[in-house]
Amino acid sequence: MQHFPIFLELHGRRALVVGRGDIAARKAGLLREAGAEVTVAAQFSAALLDGCAIAIGADAEEAELLALAAAARAAGIPVNVVDRPALCGFIMPAVIDRAPLTIAVSSGGVAPVLTRLLRARIEAAVPPAFGRLAALAAGFRDTLRRRLPDLAERRRVLERLLTGRAADLVFAGREAEAQAEFAAGIAEGAAAPGMVFLVGAGPGDADLLTLRGLRLLGEADVIVHDRLVGDGVLALARRDAERIYVGKIRAKHCLPQEGINELLIRLARAGRKVVRLKGGDPFIFGRGGEEVEALRAAGIACEVVPGVTAALACAAQELIPLTHRAVARTVTLVTGHTHDGRLDVDFPPLVRARTTLAVYMGIVSLPQLRDGLFAAGMDPATPAALIESGGAPNHRALRGTLDELVAQAQAWTRGGPTLVLIGAAVARGAAHAEAQAAIREPA
To answer: Are residues 43 and 89 in contact, defined by beta-carbon separation less than 8 angstroms?
Structure first.
C-alpha cells in the first residue's frame, strides 16, 4: 500500500486553495461539499495557512507552489499540489459520492487516467440508492447497538438486512416500508442459523475467482481454507474474518476429513456464516460431496459455489484444447492418488481414440499411470504434458511422451500442484504455443 487512505473531517474548518482557473475552482468546490470554509488565492503567503486544516495548489506559478508545499509541510498541514506528487503530503483520490457513503480511488498519483476510468466503472456499479441505504442503516445505529450489544451478532443482522427485502425496498424508492422492514429485522435479532458455503477458489490466481465467490468472501464470519488456496484469494476476504487452515498434503493432513466436517457443523451451529474455501472446484477431487453429505445429515444449510478447476485453467494457460472436433471428442478427469500404494484406475476405458485425459495429482504416480495406459493399449507416442501451478503466474509446463515425462519429472518439478494432460489435443496446444511465440518474435 503506497499511501494510507483516510477521510478527513472538514466541517467548519478552514481550507486554502492557491491557484486560478477551472482546476482550482473544482478543488475548492469539492472542499466546500465536504463542509470546509475555503479561501482561494492566486498568490501564496504564509499568513494564508493560519488555522488551515488542508491546503491545495493548482495552476499557480512554480515559485508559489514550491512555497506553499514547503510552508504547509513545515506547519504540519496536509498539502496537495495537483499533478506534482513530489510536492504532495497527500494524494487527492477520484471520488464517488453516494452520501453518506463515499468511495475514493487512488493510484498514488502515478496513473490518474486509470483512476478516472475505474471511478467511471464504480459509478455505474454503485447506483445512488446505496447512499439512501447507508442513511437508513445509520438511522438505526443506536437502536442496533442497544438491542444487539454483541458485535458479531450485530454484523450478521446488518448483513441480512442490507442484502434482503429492506434493501430491495430502498432501491424501489419505498422508504417508509424499508424503515418498517429494518425495524422488524432488528427485533428478530440474529436468530437465523449459520450456513456453510463451499466455494471454489479456482487454481490460485485471484482473477479466476467467481463474482459470487468474491462476494461471499466479503461476507463470511469464518473462512476454512485449503493449502492450494492462493494468498491473493485470501487477501480478498473480510479483514476481520476468522481464518482456519485445514490444508492437506500427500500423506499428511493437519485435520482429517471427519474433523473438517465436524468443524463446519460446529461453526454453523454457532450462527456463523462459513465459507469453506477449496482450491479449484469443490466437487472435482475436492471432497466437497463428503462435506455436503455431512452438513445435510446434521441439518445445516449449505450451498456450493463452483470454481475454475485445474484442468480448465491449465489447458487454457497452455493453449491446449481439451476437446477439438478433429482429435478429441471427450475429456476425462482422473485422480492420480494411490490407494495402499496402488493406482486404483480402470485403464481400458481410458484408452480410447479422440479423448483427452486430465490426471489430477498425478506426478508421484506417473510411472504407474504410464504402465497402466500402455498395458491397456495406448500408443507410446501419444503426446502428454505436465503443467505445474497452472492458472497461477508461476505456472510452467513440460511436454513430451509419457516415457519422456516419467524420465524427467522428478528432476523438473518444484513441488507445486501438477496436472497431467494426455492425448492428441496436447499436440494441438504445442502448435498453438509455437505460433504465438512466432508472432511475438521480432522480425
So the answer is: no
Statement: residue 35 has pLDDT above 90: yes
User: Is 248 assigned a catalytic role?
Assistant: yes
Higher model confidence: residue 91 or residue 248? 91
Which one of 59, 221, 226, 281 is the catalytic residue?
226
What is the rounded CA–CA span in Å between residue 306 and residue 278?
10
Question: Average pLDDT of 293-308?
Answer: 94
Comparing 75-84, 156-165, 275-284, 289-298, which segment has the lowest mean pLDDT? 156-165
| CATH ID of 195-308, from 3.40.1010.10, 3.30.70.920, 3.40.50.300, 3.40.50.2000 | 3.40.1010.10
Residue 125: how many CA atoms within 13 Å on its side-chain side?
A: 7
Alpha-carbon span 130 to 139, nearest angstrom: 14
Q: What is the pTM of this model?
A: 0.67
The H or E element containing residue 103 is strand 101-105
What integer is the mean pLDDT of 315-343? 90
Residue 379 falls in the annotated catalytic set: no
Q: Cα(first)–Cα(last) distance of the chain, in Å?
A: 40
Domain 1-92 -> CATH class: alpha beta
CATH of the domain spanning 311-438: 3.30.950.10
